[in-house]
Design a protein that fits this description.
about 140 residues; mainly alpha; 2 domains; two-stranded antiparallel sheet; cytoplasm
């Protein structure tokens, strides 16, 4: 009977050792999983909120004095931008024509001494000269 208990205890110990080996492997994998999880959260790689990744960059540093090519590129792009914006503006003659059309169709003021135009007359003038009104409204 005592021999059976020894066998029994030896079998139990062997099974325990086998279970401990498995648990060590499981512990290592669990530890690795937790480490990667917390590390990615700390580094900002978590999937919680990624909306900040879509924010465009608003500021670019000015080129240094020795970066001549970048300075020329900046000057050229600024000149092209200003030309494009100046083409959108009305010249003096177009502005005078628009002012004349609006002044011609003004309605008597209800209050105050400001010149006013009715909405119907405005829509009619916008329909007749869309290029002037589009440039003026921008």
């Amino acid at each position: 009977m005592e021999n059976e208990k020894r066998d029994h205890w030896s079998e139990v110990l062997k099974r325990r050792l086998q279970n401990n080996e498995r648990s060590e492997e499981e512990k290592k994998t669990k530890e690795t999983e937790l480490f990667t999880k917390y590390y990615t959260e700390w580094r900002g790689g978590g999937d919680k909120d990624t909306s900040y990744n879509n924010i465009p960059r608003f500021y670019y540093r000015l080129p240094a004095e020795d970066e001549i090519l970048l300075q020329k590129l900046r000057e050229e792009s600024r000149a092209v931008f200003l030309q494009r914006k100046s083409r959108e503006l009305l010249d003096n003659e177009e502005l005078q024509n628009l002012w004349f059309l609006l002044d011609k169709h003004q309605v008597p003021p209800i209050t105050g001494e400001e010149a006013m135009i009715s909405y119907e007359a405005y829509l009619q003038k916008v329909f007749h000269c869309p290029s002037l009104c589009q440039a003026a409204s921008q």
